Amino acid sequence: MNEIRLYVSTTEQKAEQILDLMTPVFEDEELPIATSEIDEKADIWEASIYLYMDQEEDVRERFAALLKPAFPELAIEKEVIPDVDWIAKSLDGLKPVRAGRFVVHGSHDRDKLRPSDIAIEIDAGQAFGTGHHGTTAGCLETIETVVRSRRVRNALDLGTGSGVLAIAVRKLKNIPVLATDIDPIAVRVARENVRRNGIASGISLETAPGFHSTSFSRHGPFDLIIANILARPLIRMAPQLAAHLAPGGSVILSGILASQRWKVIAAYSGANLRHVRTIWRNGWVTIHLDRP
Ligand SMILES: C[S@@+](CC[C@H](N)C(=O)[O-])C[C@H]1O[C@@H](n2cnc3c(N)ncnc32)[C@H](O)[C@@H]1O
């Protein structure tokens, strides 16, 4: 089914106010989902609602009723987003994606690489993580910043999917990486991608739900933990995740809608982590926190 996006384009300040109005009304529903995104070049923010076609009228009315009293000048726009099964889609036909110095590409795009690129070749197959999603791109950018600016001697990639983030860490620095996923198919795909990128050793792959494996204590504590999952499980696992982080370590969290970011930051502040930076990509945020 196609997705319909209703959105208003406005300033950063108004977008925040609109999100504050929308969050208590829409947050606990499966659909629609309130979010926001930034177009950094144009310095324009969008507050958006994503919904399915058959719910359009109802949601449009409710959104308008919230918006009009406070922001009568803003028009609600509509966009139809074609249904794309990102997980099943291979990289054939997808352009290489740039995130910081990383370029995630398929085997057919090797000739498009520049000498300064840190190339990651991914065949998406049945696992998430081609680099095209805002959460993966946000994690890649943040990994580059953290690995270059902090003392990172080992890393955990929780929810590795295609293995893209574990491969990224390993391409930047020759350190051991534990990469886990609840999905055995993802672990198989990740293993193939690790091999495809010429990484002979250093990445341990394992099927593991959450932190229920002795591998975490055997490989940890970790200087860097990356988890691109979803806001709710991330909030739930905050104490466990923090317990596997070494003193002075960093955490990179994604899979979080803009409207959910404060709840995630609050959960991790409660586990004694300090918020460093949040970056935005296509309505999704990636959060970097440090253990002091
Ligand atoms: C959004 S994908 C991220 C894939 C890749 N890391 C990326 O950034 O593109 C989330 C992955 O986390 C896995 N996952 C979800 N919950 C998990 C959990 N509690 N423990 C381990 N893996 C989990 C899913 O199977 C999926 O492969």
UniProtKB/TrEMBL annotation:
Q: Which UniProt keywords apply?
A: Cytoplasm, Methyltransferase, Ribonucleoprotein, Ribosomal protein, S-adenosyl-L-methionine, Transferase
**What is the catalytic activity of this protein?**
L-lysyl-[protein] + 3 S-adenosyl-L-methionine = N(6),N(6),N(6)-trimethyl-L-lysyl-[protein] + 3 S-adenosyl-L-homocysteine + 3 H(+)
Catalytic EC class: transferase
Q: What is its EC number?
A: 2.1.1.-
Q: Does the keyword Ribosomal protein apply?
A: yes
Its localization reads: Cytoplasm
Please name the InterPro entries in this protein's record.
Ribosomal_L11_MeTrfase_PrmA (IPR050078), Ribosomal_PrmA_MeTrfase (IPR004498), SAM-dependent_MTases_sf (IPR029063)
Q: Which GO terms describe its molecular function?
A: protein-lysine N-methyltransferase activity
Q: Which residues form a coiled coil?
A: none
Which top-level group of life is the source organism from?
Bacteria
Q: HAMAP family, per this entry?
A: Methyltr_PrmA (MF_00735)
Question: What's this protein's function?
Answer: Methylates ribosomal protein L11.
Q: Which PANTHER family match?
A: ELECTRON TRANSFER FLAVOPROTEIN BETA SUBUNIT LYSINE METHYLTRANSFERASE
Q: What is this protein called?
A: Ribosomal protein L11 methyltransferase
